[in-house]
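Why predict the complex rather than its parts? Because the way molecules touch one another can change local conformation, and only a joint prediction can capture that. The input here totals 956 residues.
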Amino acid sequence: MKFSPFHPIHLVLGLVIWAAWFVFLYGGLSVGCAIAPPASEEQAGTWINGAIVAIALLVGGYLLWCAYRCMHASSDPKLQKDDRLKVFISKTAAAVYLVSAFASLALAVPGLVLPPCV
Amino acid sequence: MSERIQQRNHEREQRLAHVWGNLPGWGALAAVNHTTVGLRFIATGLVFFLVGGLLAMLIRTQLALPEQDIIESALYNQLFTMHGTVMMFLFAIPVLEGLAMYLIPKMIGTRDLVFPRLSALGYFCYLFGGLIVLSSLVLEVAPDAGWFMYTPLSSATYSPGPGSDFWLLGITFVEISAISAGVELVVSILRTRANGMSLNRMPIFCWYILAMALMIVFGFPPLILGSVLLELERAAGFVFFATAGGGDPLLWQHLFWLFGHPEVYIIFLPAAGIVSTLIPVFARHPLVGYRWIVLSIITMGFISFGLWVHHMFTVGIPHLAQAFFSVASMLVAIPTGIQIFAWLATLWYGKVVFRLPMLWILGFLVVFVCGGLTGVMLALAPFNWQVHDTHFVVAHMHYVLVGGMLFPLVAGLYYWLPHVSGRMPSDSLGRWGFWLFFGGFNLTFLLMHLTGLLGMPRRIYTYEAGLGWEWLNLVSSIGGFIMAIGVAVVIVDIVLHFRFGQRAEQNPWGADTLEWAIPMPVNTYNFSSLPEISTRHPMWNAPELVESIAAGEHGLADVQALRRDIYGSDATTGKVREVVHLPTNSWLPLMTALALAVLCISLLVKAYLLAVVFTVMALVLSLRWSWENGAHPRAAPTDDNEPGAPPLHSRTCNGPGLWGMVVSLMADGTFFVSLLFGWFYLWTAAPEWTLPDHSPIQLVPMIFSGLLLTAAVGVFWVLVRGLRRRRATHLGPGMWLVAALGAGHWALLAGQLMSAPLAPTERAHDAVLTVILFYLLLHSGLAVIFTLLQAVRVRLGYTAARLPYEPIVIQPFWFYTLGVYWLSLLAFLLLPNAWSVG
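Output of the joint prediction:
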């Protein structure tokens, strides 16, 4: 997270990461099934399912960390009364990161139970 | 004394009215003012709504009883296709865009949108495109493949008539309008807010419109690409969606729903913006959870792009992939729920005044929540399979779209009507209209859920007796006609109010937003002086603004050098950064739209030579338009900034034009990425896709061409870097050099296209390559033309060290051209070569 936690880019960055993860998930599943489809009897215990869950944990973890950074910045005692804009941006951004983390992890939940290419 | 002040104010306002006014008589067609254009959008959209409604009545008449033959099957197919098309493309989106165009400048405390000629072009494209689509009905050749035009049904084999062409060309034309509105609204909201209107003070409606506009920018290009590809397949025999040759009909569904599902939210968000604006006014309480609602808007804007496959649950996609979309479809209900709870909390904490607009808002809450609940049911894949293509889906869709869009829209129309006319609508007629519409709607569509659950499919023109659907259809039809009577009553009310409505007092509803600080009926320049904002509720916390604005006590109170001036401000803080001088009335938007309309008709009648002529004409008109920009004497007659005032935008390095270019390139980039998606989709999923043994394009000339392009962009970058430091050494010769390098690159690329043994009518692989080569040629060619014009402008003194604006605007276009070139080389040439070798 290079930008200051008060930069407005954080209002969308979490969901941009979520969107990239979603595209990777859907595209990667198609490519994975085309290149190295696992046997259908393996059910959900395939390399594709493992990769989905592992990457989801990484993405979700990173987004949670970003949410913490923004939330922490918004409660900085150095912020003045007229810094309401900064508080608005960082608090909203923290919530956006939190939602993005939840959505990223939620996408991977079906990977725990469903076979990938059937 | 006070008389002298009044006299001075009157004279000042007359000068403002003179500079900002439309031309008289037929000259009104040259108007670019956002109030005029916005109202035209709304009025035209409402006419199309009546046409779409009439088609719906014909459908309900046919279905009222079993085994009727009032309308034969072929015509019925045309009717339901046109009903969906008209309502979605010609009514819902344009009317909301029009409302946004009308309101946004007034809400953010400025005088116009930032690219007024683009507004006017957008309107005429919409009007002509809509007329072209509607003309197919009159000519009895209307499209009949459903409003989503699924292939192969819409392909030349199964739809040999011109109906599909009318749809593809007409709707693409209308989409130009949507994207232009999207670009314009994004830049206006971000860069022209009133001094001090920081993001956290922005009216909530502006957040909704910002999200909607960005969604248009990213959502429409996939459908434009799909339409271009399908028209190429139909007209020239290219292979994209036909299985033989390596295409895939499912690619169309992906491209359509990549647009189609976000479109539902593009329609819903502004309507929800109306709700979030009106509820606090009638609850007499600030919106509860402003920040939560902003969070919901942003979340919805993104997640709604991850739902498109839920329209394709039955086409054979792997279960796990379906589950991703199922999860995303359920996730999107959360931000919707947050908004509904925030609205309820606002009503709970406030003291609700049940004025007429509030009735429609309550109708929205009831109907939309029901539609949302059936939406969650449909997000579950097994239930979706059961009711797929039944009337249950039709009922759900109407609950969401009519509930989520039409109810708030009518509430908004009633609410802002006094703003336009200066008169109040009739309360009693309005209430009759509401109850007739609300009752009729629920009678029609609540029962339709049951009709669907009993198995009645969509899009059948009749049904046998004895299936248990008869009474349900009859009641639905009766409900439909009651709803139509409700619409008629609302129309009568609105028409009569212009003549008989009571005069409205200033801010008649007791609203908090800035649009109510301007005189009613509305003038052409909105604010007599541009206020500074220090609160989210200016009309509640600073009601004296009405007088101080009128008295000219704020910014840009007087006309300078006959320019249309507004403030440009910082995107985050809203602090004033520059004075943006806007273009005045112009015939160019109308002429450009006319040229595009003739181009569209030429393609319809397959007069391709004429189409080329009018393409060139549209390009020339666009360039003529761009000529009177920046430091051109007609755009900014004075040479220097006014002392003590912020600089003129055309003298800065970060004006709105740069933002407009970047947002336009986002749309362009989405088009490119959609094409890339199509390429990889066909490669991995099309059953008969084949890669040729040897690429028909030669790699070495392509790399050499790319190097020339890289050199051109490099030189341009050096020139712009100098301009940013207010140095213009060798600027003119530099521009000529860039143009020469770019022209060399273009010529090599064109040579490749001409000499390559491409067979786009035989192989999907070659068809996609042909399209991408044309795409690259178009971009390189435009970049060269822009640069040549700059070289001339340097000689004329319109671009110089102290006038760096225009090359800075063009630079992202060169970067984009360079980026897509090398990315295309990688994805379309190097990767397949490497794959073949592997």
